[in-house]
Design goal:
Layout: E1 5-10, H1 14-25, E2 30-34, E3 45-46, E4 55-56, H2 63-67, H3 69-74, H4 76-79, E5 82-83, E6 87-93, E7 97-102, H5 105-111, H6 116-128, H7 130-137, H8 148-161, H9 173-183, H10 193-206, E8 213-214, H11 219-231, E9 235-238, E10 250-255, H12 259-266, H13 272-279, E11 286-294, E12 310-313, H14 317-328, E13 338-341, E14 356-364, H15 373-383, E15 391-397, H16 399-405, H17 421-425, E16 442-444, H18 458-472
Parallel strand pairs: 1-2, 1-10, 2-9, 10-16
Antiparallel strand pairs: 3-4, 5-8, 6-7, 11-14, 11-15, 12-13, 13-14
Length: about 500
């Protein structure tokens, strides 16, 4: 049967774009369809508050993109100006105190005082083997590790930080909170093994590849991928809402969607047994996002925070753990965990001269309809007195509005599926090839498949590799580096 395209990819988020690039680089005729009027998904940048203020709609800081095997092969840093700050992230506490994670491990150790030696023991070896660690954490969990010793060393630290004894060895509130802040990115109860794994990996990258901010906003990553796709014959169409596989005229279909949308799109073409397995897939806690246009920089009481784009707000480790448990129980925390990004610290293109854009989100129960503007403002004001006076405008999206913006964020779950320990293995089903679905010629290429959430493109790249192998007999990954160069 003749088709207009060899492969069609549904969804132009980072995973969909990565999948399309791999397929096009392999010589296939590729069509990429996007329901929105612009590409990017989790990497869009728009003026959400006032003219001249550019806000990342979803992801803003990209440690996992810097660590991604796909992006490193593709040459992300050669194509996009990725600004790597000297201070990866910070965590304020009451009284003008703060824990600060410098990219330089030894500067972090020095700043943590009596916990410095413990921090060094925890991270020095993992930073040394960062490349091997990234290869493991961004690989299918059922795949045999290339470096078993890396798994052992990482696993021991996860056990240490993932159980009720997680405070053992860290004596200061600054060090405990600094680590809790990165662990909270998982939107999971704390302590837990899944939160520990996520936090430790992010912390390692904070001392290694870095927590990069793209100059001009995350949209530039999506635009660079799209440019590469078109350069290799790919076709992109926006404003196309795919509701059935019958709309797709291609030999192979790759969908950057979650299991819930896959079930709806596949309809009666999906075997009943596979459908039941997908229906067991669970979604996690939500995010409620607020963007601010500011007349000046955030007036942090702890001056060290004026030098880092990323700030974790929530108080002590115990405070954050309590807030995350509330979210898991379906309760809005009185003092929620807030992730704040002030890109203007390193990128002056985000706002008019002297002014700043501020990106924030708070963790909330899945499906929340609450506007968190006031709660987030209170948390920032707590650690930056006078913040309210700088706000020129704000734009809010509740968790349910995030889903309306992007159906992959079910109930505001920006991870496209709870990253629990079970669902890091069964994602979305237990399989050595989870990207290949039970619907012939159809593949899942999203954050709902391994290696899971974040902007790294690996879910899409793995799905494309699986499709190339099973449908076209192509066993090798095509060259992805910029023309005239080689894959790194």
């Amino acid at each position: 049967m003749s088709h207009a395209f060899d492969a069609v990819v549904v969804g132009a988020g980072p995973n969909g774009l990565a999948a399309a690039v791999v397929l096009a680089r392999a010589g296939l005729r590729v069509q990429l369809l996007e329901r929105d009027d612009t590409i990017g998904g989790g990497t869009r940048t728009k003026e959400l508050t006032l003219p001249g203020f550019r806000h990342d709609v979803c992801s803003a800081v990209h440690p996992m993109a810097m660590a991604s095997g796909f992006f490193r092969r593709w040459g992300l840093e050669q194509r996009v100006d990725m600004i790597v700050p000297e201070v990866s992230y910070g965590h304020p506490l009451d009284g003008g105190r703060a824990g600060v994670a410098h990219r330089d491990l030894e500067r972090t150790v020095e700043g943590l005082g009596r916990d410095g030696a413990t921090w060094r023991r925890m991270f020095s070896r993992l930073v040394d083997i960062e490349a091997e660690l990234s290869q493991f954490t961004l690989s299918p969990i059922l795949q045999l590790p290339r470096h078993p010793q890396t798994v052992v060393e990482f696993g021991l630290r996860i056990l240490h930080q993932g159980g009720p004894w997680w405070d053992a060895g860290l004596r200061t509130e600054e060090a405990r909170a600094l680590l809790a802040g990165v662990m909270a990115h998982a939107i999971r109860p704390m302590p837990s093994l899944s939160a520990g794994a996520a936090g430790l990996a992010l912390a390692v990258h904070g001392h290694g590849y870095g927590w990069a901010v793209p100059r001009g906003g995350s949209q530039v990553i999506a635009d660079a991928l799209a440019d590469d796709l078109r350069a290799h014959g790919g076709v992109i169409e926006t404003g196309v809402d795919v509701t059935s596989l019958r709309q797709l005229d291609a030999r192979v279909k790759l969908l950057d969607v979650t299991p819930r949308q896959l079930i709806a799109i596949a309809g009666d073409e999906m075997p009943a047994g596979y459908r039941r397995r997908l229906e067991r897939f669970r979604y996690g806690g939500g995010a409620s996002k607020v963007d601010f246009a500011l007349s000046g920089p955030v007036p942090w009481a702890a001056e060290e925070l004026l030098r880092t784009p990323t700030v974790h707000l929530g108080g002590t480790r115990a405070d954050i753990a309590r807030a995350e448990h509330d979210v898991a129980r379906g309760v809005h925390p009185a003092e929620p965990f807030v992730l704040a990004v002030q890109p203007g610290v390193v990128d002056d293109s985000r706002a008019p001269a002297g002014q700043h854009s501020l990106w924030t989100y708070a963790h909330v129960p899945n499906g929340s309809t609450v506007d968190m503007t006031e709660a987030i403002t209170r948390q920032i004001e707590r650690f930056a007195p006078g913040f309210r006076d700088l706000v020129l405008a704000s734009s809010a999206r509740s968790a349910d509005e995030l889903e309306a913006y992007d159906p992959n964020y079910v109930g505001g779950d920006i991870a496209s599926g709870a990253p629990s320990l079970k669902q890091l293995i069964v994602r979305p089903v237990l399989s050595t090839d989870p990207w290949r679905t039970a619907v012939p010629g159809t593949y899942l290429a999203s954050s709902s498949v391994p290696p899971g959430p974040s902007v790294h493109g690996m879910g899409g790249a793995y799905a494309a590799q699986s499709a190339l192998r099973h449908e076209f007999g192509i066993d090798h990954l095509p060259r992805l580096g910029p023309d005239g160069g080689s894959d790194s």
